[in-house]
Amino acid sequence: MMKIKLVSIPVDNQEKALEFYTKKLNFVKKIDVPVGDGNRWLTVVSGEEQDGPELLLEPAPVNFEPTKVYQKALFDAGIPYTQFNTSNAQKEYERLIDLGVTFSVKPTEMGTVKIAVFNDTCGNHIQIVEVL
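and the corresponding structure tokens:
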């Protein structure tokens, strides 16, 4: 049996990403280890599930040009790089708006879910999803 332990997201600046993901999204830093050339093995987890899957804030766009091209193409197309679940998309949207987060899609019902999409300030659109 396999479990999801770690997923990564490319970020153009690890320190800026850490600040956004912890201060705005209320994630918690789990691991922060230098790996050379100013890069870090830097992971965050949900504040509500600190033993759950880790999100690696990957400095790939700085170090691997194809990642930068792919990330920019997704961003320019408005396609979310990943998504996070929430129990109340409208409430989370309002909380994040109050913190200055920019949304490209306001909370919108789509069948059995309500979604919203925001800019993580590090090169990605992120979608939040509430299952209705």
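(Above: one complete record from the training split.) The longest strand covers residues 27-36.
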